[in-house]
Amino acid sequence: MSDPVTRLATPGVQALRPYAPGKPLSELEREYGIVDAVKLASNENPLGPSTEALEAIRTGLGEVARYPDGNGFELKAALAARLQVPAEWITLGNGSNDVLEMVARAFLSPQHSAVFSAHAFAVYPIVTQAIGASSRVAPAHDGSRGPKFGHDLEAMLAAVADDTRVVFIANPNNPTGTWVGRAELRDFLERVGDGTVVVVDEAYFEYVDEPDYPDCVRWVAEFPNLLVTRTFSKAHGLAALRVGYGVSQPPLADLLNRVRQPFNVNSLAQAAAVAALADEAHLRDSVRLNRDGMRQLEAGLRALRLDFIPSVGNFVSVDVGRDAGEVYQALLREGVIVRPVDNYGLPGHLRISIGLPAENERLLQALGKVLAA
Ligand SMILES: *Cc1c(COP(=O)(O)O)cnc(C)c1O
Protein backbone atom coordinates (compact mmCIF):
# COMPACT_ATOMS: atom_id res chain seq x y z
CA MET A 1 0.00 0.00 0.00
CA SER A 2 3.05 2.28 0.04
CA ASP A 3 2.78 2.80 -3.69
CA PRO A 4 2.13 6.55 -4.11
CA VAL A 5 -0.60 6.12 -6.72
CA THR A 6 -2.39 3.48 -4.67
CA ARG A 7 -2.61 5.97 -1.81
CA LEU A 8 -4.49 8.36 -4.07
CA ALA A 9 -7.39 5.92 -4.53
CA THR A 10 -10.53 6.22 -2.40
CA PRO A 11 -10.49 4.04 0.75
CA GLY A 12 -13.19 1.79 -0.71
CA VAL A 13 -11.20 1.12 -3.85
CA GLN A 14 -7.96 0.60 -1.92
CA ALA A 15 -9.63 -2.19 0.07
CA LEU A 16 -11.28 -3.74 -2.98
CA ARG A 17 -10.31 -7.14 -4.33
CA PRO A 18 -11.09 -7.47 -8.03
CA TYR A 19 -13.72 -9.96 -9.23
CA ALA A 20 -12.11 -13.35 -9.91
CA PRO A 21 -13.54 -14.72 -13.17
CA GLY A 22 -13.54 -18.35 -14.24
CA LYS A 23 -10.28 -19.34 -15.90
CA PRO A 24 -10.62 -18.97 -19.69
CA LEU A 25 -10.14 -22.16 -21.73
CA SER A 26 -7.39 -20.52 -23.77
CA GLU A 27 -5.42 -19.75 -20.60
CA LEU A 28 -5.59 -23.33 -19.31
CA GLU A 29 -4.58 -24.67 -22.71
CA ARG A 30 -1.66 -22.22 -22.85
CA GLU A 31 -0.44 -22.94 -19.33
CA TYR A 32 -0.92 -26.71 -19.24
CA GLY A 33 -0.51 -27.62 -22.91
CA ILE A 34 -3.94 -29.28 -22.86
CA VAL A 35 -5.93 -29.25 -26.09
CA ASP A 36 -9.39 -30.63 -25.24
CA ALA A 37 -10.09 -28.85 -21.97
CA VAL A 38 -13.63 -28.44 -20.66
CA LYS A 39 -14.86 -25.26 -18.95
CA LEU A 40 -17.66 -25.64 -16.43
CA ALA A 41 -16.80 -22.50 -14.53
CA SER A 42 -18.88 -19.50 -15.59
CA ASN A 43 -22.51 -20.67 -15.83
CA GLU A 44 -22.50 -20.28 -19.60
CA ASN A 45 -25.01 -21.99 -21.90
CA PRO A 46 -23.24 -25.11 -23.26
CA LEU A 47 -25.47 -25.05 -26.37
CA GLY A 48 -24.28 -21.57 -27.27
CA PRO A 49 -26.65 -18.92 -28.55
CA SER A 50 -29.62 -19.24 -30.87
CA THR A 51 -28.65 -19.52 -34.55
CA GLU A 52 -31.08 -16.64 -35.14
CA ALA A 53 -29.01 -14.51 -32.76
CA LEU A 54 -25.83 -15.42 -34.65
CA GLU A 55 -27.49 -14.44 -37.90
CA ALA A 56 -28.57 -11.11 -36.40
CA ILE A 57 -24.96 -10.46 -35.36
CA ARG A 58 -23.70 -11.17 -38.90
CA THR A 59 -26.31 -8.85 -40.35
CA GLY A 60 -25.38 -6.16 -37.86
CA LEU A 61 -21.66 -6.24 -38.66
CA GLY A 62 -22.11 -3.77 -41.52
CA GLU A 63 -23.28 -1.08 -39.09
CA VAL A 64 -20.51 -1.14 -36.50
CA ALA A 65 -19.11 2.22 -37.60
CA ARG A 66 -22.30 3.81 -36.24
CA TYR A 67 -23.06 4.36 -32.57
CA PRO A 68 -25.71 1.97 -31.32
CA ASP A 69 -29.23 3.13 -30.49
CA GLY A 70 -28.57 4.62 -27.06
CA ASN A 71 -32.18 4.12 -26.08
CA GLY A 72 -32.35 0.52 -27.30
CA PHE A 73 -35.76 1.08 -28.86
CA GLU A 74 -36.20 -2.30 -30.56
CA LEU A 75 -34.87 -4.40 -27.71
CA LYS A 76 -36.97 -2.54 -25.16
CA ALA A 77 -40.04 -3.00 -27.37
CA ALA A 78 -39.35 -6.74 -27.70
CA LEU A 79 -38.81 -7.09 -23.94
CA ALA A 80 -41.89 -5.02 -23.16
CA ALA A 81 -44.03 -7.27 -25.36
CA ARG A 82 -42.55 -10.42 -23.85
CA LEU A 83 -42.80 -9.26 -20.22
CA GLN A 84 -46.12 -7.45 -20.70
CA VAL A 85 -44.83 -4.20 -19.23
CA PRO A 86 -44.44 -0.68 -20.69
CA ALA A 87 -41.13 -0.11 -22.51
CA GLU A 88 -40.41 2.85 -20.13
CA TRP A 89 -40.01 0.34 -17.33
CA ILE A 90 -36.90 -1.17 -18.90
CA THR A 91 -33.28 -0.11 -18.38
CA LEU A 92 -30.74 -1.85 -20.61
CA GLY A 93 -27.31 -2.71 -19.29
CA ASN A 94 -23.93 -3.89 -20.55
CA GLY A 95 -24.74 -7.15 -18.84
CA SER A 96 -27.02 -6.99 -15.81
CA ASN A 97 -23.79 -6.26 -13.91
CA ASP A 98 -23.94 -2.78 -15.46
CA VAL A 99 -27.45 -2.27 -14.07
CA LEU A 100 -26.25 -3.28 -10.59
CA GLU A 101 -23.50 -0.68 -10.89
CA MET A 102 -26.00 2.00 -11.96
CA VAL A 103 -27.99 1.20 -8.80
CA ALA A 104 -24.92 1.77 -6.66
CA ARG A 105 -24.05 5.03 -8.42
CA ALA A 106 -27.62 6.35 -8.19
CA PHE A 107 -28.44 5.36 -4.60
CA LEU A 108 -25.26 4.80 -2.57
CA SER A 109 -22.60 7.12 -1.14
CA PRO A 110 -20.06 6.89 1.73
CA GLN A 111 -22.94 7.85 4.08
CA HIS A 112 -25.03 4.88 2.97
CA SER A 113 -25.09 1.11 3.20
CA ALA A 114 -26.26 -1.80 1.10
CA VAL A 115 -27.65 -5.03 2.55
CA PHE A 116 -27.03 -8.44 1.05
CA SER A 117 -26.63 -12.00 2.28
CA ALA A 118 -23.56 -14.02 3.15
CA HIS A 119 -22.58 -16.22 0.17
CA ALA A 120 -24.35 -13.82 -2.22
CA PHE A 121 -23.16 -12.87 -5.70
CA ALA A 122 -19.71 -11.20 -5.55
CA VAL A 123 -20.70 -8.16 -7.59
CA TYR A 124 -22.87 -6.70 -4.77
CA PRO A 125 -19.94 -5.98 -2.42
CA ILE A 126 -17.82 -4.77 -5.33
CA VAL A 127 -20.27 -2.13 -6.60
CA THR A 128 -21.03 -1.08 -3.01
CA GLN A 129 -17.41 -0.69 -1.96
CA ALA A 130 -16.36 1.00 -5.20
CA ILE A 131 -18.78 3.82 -4.37
CA GLY A 132 -17.40 4.05 -0.82
CA ALA A 133 -20.65 2.82 0.75
CA SER A 134 -20.63 0.20 3.48
CA SER A 135 -21.92 -3.35 3.27
CA ARG A 136 -24.23 -4.90 5.85
CA VAL A 137 -23.93 -8.64 5.33
CA ALA A 138 -26.81 -10.66 6.75
CA PRO A 139 -26.07 -14.20 7.94
CA ALA A 140 -27.41 -16.92 5.64
CA HIS A 141 -29.68 -19.75 6.75
CA ASP A 142 -27.94 -22.36 8.91
CA GLY A 143 -30.32 -25.02 7.67
CA SER A 144 -32.80 -24.95 10.56
CA ARG A 145 -35.39 -22.53 9.10
CA GLY A 146 -34.51 -22.55 5.42
CA PRO A 147 -32.06 -24.01 2.91
CA LYS A 148 -28.55 -24.04 4.34
CA PHE A 149 -26.43 -21.21 2.82
CA GLY A 150 -29.62 -19.65 1.35
CA HIS A 151 -30.77 -16.05 1.89
CA ASP A 152 -32.49 -15.57 5.27
CA LEU A 153 -34.90 -12.71 4.53
CA GLU A 154 -35.68 -12.19 8.24
CA ALA A 155 -31.97 -11.65 8.89
CA MET A 156 -31.76 -9.37 5.86
CA LEU A 157 -34.69 -7.31 7.10
CA ALA A 158 -33.03 -7.05 10.50
CA ALA A 159 -29.82 -5.85 8.80
CA VAL A 160 -31.60 -2.92 7.14
CA ALA A 161 -30.58 0.26 9.00
CA ASP A 162 -31.46 3.95 8.69
CA ASP A 163 -28.55 4.43 6.30
CA THR A 164 -29.53 1.51 4.04
CA ARG A 165 -30.51 2.58 0.54
CA VAL A 166 -30.22 -0.70 -1.37
CA VAL A 167 -30.96 -4.36 -0.66
CA PHE A 168 -29.65 -6.95 -3.11
CA ILE A 169 -31.53 -10.27 -3.27
CA ALA A 170 -30.27 -12.91 -5.72
CA ASN A 171 -33.12 -15.24 -6.62
CA PRO A 172 -31.80 -17.80 -7.22
CA ASN A 173 -28.44 -16.96 -5.73
CA ASN A 174 -25.08 -17.68 -7.29
CA PRO A 175 -23.02 -19.65 -6.18
CA THR A 176 -25.44 -21.44 -3.84
CA GLY A 177 -28.32 -22.04 -6.30
CA THR A 178 -30.77 -21.48 -3.42
CA TRP A 179 -33.97 -19.48 -3.89
CA VAL A 180 -36.69 -17.76 -1.89
CA GLY A 181 -40.40 -18.43 -2.32
CA ARG A 182 -43.30 -16.18 -3.21
CA ALA A 183 -44.86 -15.53 0.21
CA GLU A 184 -41.52 -14.93 1.89
CA LEU A 185 -40.27 -12.45 -0.70
CA ARG A 186 -43.59 -10.66 -0.92
CA ASP A 187 -43.66 -10.33 2.87
CA PHE A 188 -40.12 -8.90 2.77
CA LEU A 189 -41.11 -6.27 0.20
CA GLU A 190 -44.13 -5.22 2.23
CA ARG A 191 -42.25 -4.98 5.52
CA VAL A 192 -39.06 -3.29 4.31
CA GLY A 193 -41.11 -0.29 3.11
CA ASP A 194 -40.18 2.18 0.40
CA GLY A 195 -37.22 3.75 2.22
CA THR A 196 -34.80 1.46 0.40
CA VAL A 197 -34.42 0.18 -3.15
CA VAL A 198 -34.84 -3.59 -3.39
CA VAL A 199 -33.00 -5.25 -6.27
CA VAL A 200 -34.18 -8.77 -7.07
CA ASP A 201 -31.50 -10.28 -9.29
CA GLU A 202 -33.12 -12.93 -11.48
CA ALA A 203 -30.11 -13.82 -13.66
CA TYR A 204 -31.20 -17.48 -13.71
CA PHE A 205 -34.95 -16.84 -13.97
CA GLU A 206 -35.42 -18.91 -17.15
CA TYR A 207 -34.01 -22.05 -15.55
CA VAL A 208 -36.19 -22.13 -12.47
CA ASP A 209 -39.07 -24.59 -12.57
CA GLU A 210 -40.55 -24.37 -9.08
CA PRO A 211 -44.27 -23.62 -8.58
CA ASP A 212 -43.51 -21.36 -5.62
CA TYR A 213 -40.79 -19.34 -7.40
CA PRO A 214 -41.98 -15.73 -7.81
CA ASP A 215 -41.76 -13.82 -11.10
CA CYS A 216 -41.01 -10.46 -9.50
CA VAL A 217 -41.67 -8.49 -12.70
CA ARG A 218 -45.35 -9.06 -11.86
CA TRP A 219 -44.89 -7.05 -8.64
CA VAL A 220 -43.16 -3.99 -10.11
CA ALA A 221 -46.47 -2.15 -10.55
CA GLU A 222 -47.08 -2.33 -6.80
CA PHE A 223 -43.61 -1.48 -5.50
CA PRO A 224 -42.01 1.78 -6.73
CA ASN A 225 -38.74 0.82 -5.00
CA LEU A 226 -38.45 -2.61 -6.69
CA LEU A 227 -35.96 -3.28 -9.48
CA VAL A 228 -35.83 -6.72 -11.11
CA THR A 229 -32.71 -7.54 -13.12
CA ARG A 230 -32.26 -10.25 -15.75
CA THR A 231 -29.66 -11.10 -18.36
CA PHE A 232 -29.01 -12.60 -21.78
CA SER A 233 -25.71 -14.05 -20.50
CA LYS A 234 -26.99 -17.27 -18.98
CA ALA A 235 -29.95 -19.16 -20.50
CA HIS A 236 -29.79 -17.13 -23.74
CA GLY A 237 -26.10 -17.92 -24.25
CA LEU A 238 -24.90 -14.38 -25.06
CA ALA A 239 -22.41 -13.87 -22.22
CA ALA A 240 -19.68 -12.33 -24.39
CA LEU A 241 -21.96 -9.66 -25.82
CA ARG A 242 -22.83 -8.18 -22.41
CA VAL A 243 -26.52 -7.44 -22.39
CA GLY A 244 -28.94 -7.47 -19.49
CA TYR A 245 -31.77 -5.30 -18.19
CA GLY A 246 -33.67 -3.99 -15.23
CA VAL A 247 -37.44 -3.64 -14.85
CA SER A 248 -38.80 -0.94 -12.55
CA GLN A 249 -41.32 1.84 -12.47
CA PRO A 250 -40.32 4.92 -14.54
CA PRO A 251 -39.03 7.15 -11.68
CA LEU A 252 -36.47 4.50 -10.68
CA ALA A 253 -35.62 3.81 -14.34
CA ASP A 254 -35.14 7.55 -14.87
CA LEU A 255 -32.57 7.72 -12.05
CA LEU A 256 -30.63 4.78 -13.49
CA ASN A 257 -30.73 6.43 -16.89
CA ARG A 258 -29.03 9.54 -15.46
CA VAL A 259 -25.90 7.58 -14.53
CA ARG A 260 -25.98 5.17 -17.49
CA GLN A 261 -23.24 5.45 -20.11
CA PRO A 262 -24.92 6.89 -23.21
CA PHE A 263 -24.15 3.91 -25.48
CA ASN A 264 -23.76 1.16 -22.91
CA VAL A 265 -25.21 -1.69 -24.99
CA ASN A 266 -23.59 -2.25 -28.38
CA SER A 267 -25.62 -2.74 -31.54
CA LEU A 268 -24.64 -6.40 -32.07
CA ALA A 269 -25.75 -7.23 -28.54
CA GLN A 270 -29.06 -5.41 -29.03
CA ALA A 271 -29.77 -7.20 -32.32
CA ALA A 272 -28.74 -10.60 -30.96
CA ALA A 273 -30.89 -10.14 -27.85
CA VAL A 274 -33.97 -9.32 -29.94
CA ALA A 275 -33.40 -12.47 -32.02
CA ALA A 276 -32.68 -14.60 -28.93
CA LEU A 277 -35.92 -13.48 -27.35
CA ALA A 278 -37.86 -14.61 -30.40
CA ASP A 279 -36.22 -18.06 -30.52
CA GLU A 280 -38.32 -19.74 -27.87
CA ALA A 281 -37.41 -23.22 -29.10
CA HIS A 282 -33.72 -22.63 -28.39
CA LEU A 283 -34.51 -21.40 -24.89
CA ARG A 284 -36.66 -24.48 -24.24
CA ASP A 285 -33.86 -26.76 -25.50
CA SER A 286 -31.36 -24.96 -23.29
CA VAL A 287 -33.54 -25.30 -20.21
CA ARG A 288 -34.23 -28.98 -20.91
CA LEU A 289 -30.54 -29.73 -21.44
CA ASN A 290 -29.80 -28.02 -18.14
CA ARG A 291 -32.45 -29.98 -16.24
CA ASP A 292 -31.15 -33.28 -17.61
CA GLY A 293 -27.54 -32.27 -16.99
CA MET A 294 -28.37 -31.31 -13.41
CA ARG A 295 -29.87 -34.77 -12.85
CA GLN A 296 -26.79 -36.38 -14.36
CA LEU A 297 -24.45 -34.35 -12.19
CA GLU A 298 -26.47 -34.87 -9.01
CA ALA A 299 -26.57 -38.64 -9.58
CA GLY A 300 -22.82 -38.69 -10.26
CA LEU A 301 -22.06 -36.62 -7.15
CA ARG A 302 -24.20 -38.91 -5.02
CA ALA A 303 -22.33 -41.90 -6.44
CA LEU A 304 -19.10 -40.17 -5.33
CA ARG A 305 -20.71 -39.66 -1.90
CA LEU A 306 -20.33 -35.89 -2.13
CA ASP A 307 -22.66 -33.36 -0.53
CA PHE A 308 -23.89 -30.50 -2.69
CA ILE A 309 -26.19 -27.51 -2.23
CA PRO A 310 -29.46 -28.27 -4.06
CA SER A 311 -29.58 -25.74 -6.92
CA VAL A 312 -32.28 -24.42 -9.26
CA GLY A 313 -29.71 -22.66 -11.48
CA ASN A 314 -27.36 -23.98 -14.16
CA PHE A 315 -24.61 -24.78 -11.66
CA VAL A 316 -24.15 -26.66 -8.42
CA SER A 317 -21.77 -26.07 -5.52
CA VAL A 318 -20.23 -29.24 -4.18
CA ASP A 319 -18.63 -29.87 -0.81
CA VAL A 320 -15.47 -31.76 -1.77
CA GLY A 321 -14.70 -32.60 1.85
CA ARG A 322 -11.12 -31.35 1.72
CA ASP A 323 -9.07 -28.35 0.54
CA ALA A 324 -11.13 -27.28 -2.46
CA GLY A 325 -8.21 -25.25 -3.86
CA GLU A 326 -6.16 -28.42 -4.24
CA VAL A 327 -9.03 -30.27 -5.90
CA TYR A 328 -9.49 -27.30 -8.24
CA GLN A 329 -5.80 -27.41 -9.22
CA ALA A 330 -5.89 -31.17 -9.72
CA LEU A 331 -8.97 -30.85 -11.94
CA LEU A 332 -7.14 -28.25 -14.03
CA ARG A 333 -4.40 -30.80 -14.66
CA GLU A 334 -7.17 -33.16 -15.84
CA GLY A 335 -8.29 -30.44 -18.26
CA VAL A 336 -11.45 -29.50 -16.38
CA ILE A 337 -12.06 -25.94 -15.21
CA VAL A 338 -14.50 -25.39 -12.35
CA ARG A 339 -14.78 -22.50 -9.90
CA PRO A 340 -13.36 -22.23 -6.39
CA VAL A 341 -15.82 -20.34 -4.17
CA ASP A 342 -13.70 -19.67 -1.06
CA ASN A 343 -14.17 -15.95 -1.76
CA TYR A 344 -17.91 -16.55 -1.20
CA GLY A 345 -17.33 -17.97 2.27
CA LEU A 346 -17.57 -21.55 0.96
CA PRO A 347 -13.95 -22.71 1.29
CA GLY A 348 -14.70 -26.46 1.05
CA HIS A 349 -16.83 -26.11 -2.06
CA LEU A 350 -16.35 -25.99 -5.82
CA ARG A 351 -18.99 -24.57 -8.12
CA ILE A 352 -19.62 -26.64 -11.24
CA SER A 353 -21.63 -25.30 -14.19
CA ILE A 354 -23.88 -27.74 -16.04
CA GLY A 355 -22.38 -28.64 -19.42
CA LEU A 356 -23.16 -30.99 -22.28
CA PRO A 357 -23.68 -34.63 -21.22
CA ALA A 358 -20.14 -35.60 -22.28
CA GLU A 359 -18.65 -32.61 -20.43
CA ASN A 360 -20.55 -33.51 -17.25
CA GLU A 361 -19.29 -37.08 -17.56
CA ARG A 362 -15.74 -35.84 -18.09
CA LEU A 363 -16.00 -33.75 -14.91
CA LEU A 364 -17.40 -36.66 -12.89
CA GLN A 365 -14.64 -38.99 -14.10
CA ALA A 366 -11.94 -36.41 -13.34
CA LEU A 367 -13.41 -35.62 -9.92
CA GLY A 368 -13.58 -39.33 -9.04
CA LYS A 369 -9.96 -39.77 -10.10
CA VAL A 370 -8.72 -36.69 -8.22
CA LEU A 371 -10.58 -37.57 -5.01
CA ALA A 372 -9.37 -41.18 -5.10
CA ALA A 373 -5.73 -40.07 -5.48
C1 LIG B 1 -24.03 -14.05 -13.97
C2 LIG B 1 -24.78 -13.26 -12.96
C3 LIG B 1 -25.18 -11.93 -13.19
C4 LIG B 1 -24.79 -11.04 -14.29
O1 LIG B 1 -24.35 -11.40 -15.41
P1 LIG B 1 -24.23 -10.39 -16.63
O2 LIG B 1 -23.44 -11.19 -17.58
O3 LIG B 1 -23.54 -9.15 -16.17
O4 LIG B 1 -25.63 -10.10 -17.07
C5 LIG B 1 -25.93 -11.27 -12.26
N1 LIG B 1 -26.30 -11.87 -11.14
C6 LIG B 1 -25.95 -13.12 -10.86
C7 LIG B 1 -26.42 -13.72 -9.59
C8 LIG B 1 -25.16 -13.85 -11.75
O5 LIG B 1 -24.77 -15.08 -11.43
Describe this structure in words.
This protein has 373 residues and is α/β, with parallel strands linked by helices. It has 2 domains: 6-48 and 281-372, Aspartate Aminotransferase, domain 1; 51-278, Aspartate Aminotransferase, domain 2, CATH 3.40.640.10. It contains 13 helices and 13 strands. It has a 7-stranded mixed β-sheet, sandwiched between helices. It has a 4-stranded antiparallel β-sheet with strand order 9-10-13-12, covered by helices on one side. Strands 1-11 form a two-stranded parallel sheet. A hairpin with a 6-residue loop joins strand 9 (307-308) and strand 10 (315-319). Helix 3 packs antiparallel against helix 10. The model has no long low-confidence stretch (mean pLDDT 96).
Write the layout of secondary structure elements.
Layout: H1 11-14, H2 25-32, E1 38-39, H3 51-60, H4 73-83, E2 90-93, H5 96-107, E3 113-117, H6 123-130, E4 134-138, H7 153-159, E5 164-170, H8 182-192, E6 197-201, E7 226-231, E8 244-247, H9 250-259, H10 267-278, H11 280-303, E9 307-308, E10 315-319, H12 324-333, E11 336-337, E12 339-340, E13 349-353, H13 357-372
Parallel strand pairs: 1-11, 3-4, 3-5, 5-6, 6-7
Antiparallel strand pairs: 2-8, 7-8, 9-10, 10-13, 12-13
Helix pairs in contact: 3-10, 4-10, 5-6, 5-9, 11-13
Keyword list:
alpha/beta; Aspartate Aminotransferase, domain 2; single chain; 38% helix; 13 helices; 2 domains; 373 residues; Aspartate Aminotransferase, domain 1; seven-stranded mixed β-sheet; binds pyridoxal-5'-phosphate; four-stranded antiparallel β-sheet; 13 strands
